[in-house]
Amino acid sequence: MQRTVLSFVSAGAWLLFASPAAAQVAGVIDATITLTAACEVNGSASSADLGTLAFGTHTTLFDSASAEVNGAGAIGVLCTPGTNATLTFGAGENDGAAVGSGRALADAGGTLLVPYDIYSDAGFNDVLAPADQITVPGTGAVETVHVYGRALGAPNLAPGTYTDTIAVTLTF
Which domains, from first to last, does the chain contain? Predict the structure, then answer.
């Protein structure tokens, strides 16, 4: 009988000096990301250089000159699949100032003008007037938008560089 009491006393002493059992708290970490539809023009999502409509070098007696926007051959638009975009062509700095077209390239003084227009087709049939739009499908791949221009000769032009700037807006 004495043995049984000792066993219980030994077991009780062991419980008094043993370290407490480890406790656990289980939990989770939530990870999130919010994505919005997006478009890029020529690789930029903020502002873009859409290229140059360079008509080249001609004599002051030229009849006409044509060109295509040369930003990598055209304007490249990349949009999230299912997000269609609209390119809106704005006014140039000299619109309506020259006879024979809606747009004009001006010399440095702004007094001599070369009439020109921009088009959505290489045949120069579909003029892109201010506020005209081209719809670009959102496919997830770069969509190519070609823009062409044709400048017309005018009387009494002086040698020099003639320029214009057209604002273009991408809406999606």
Answer: 39-171 (2.60.40.1090)
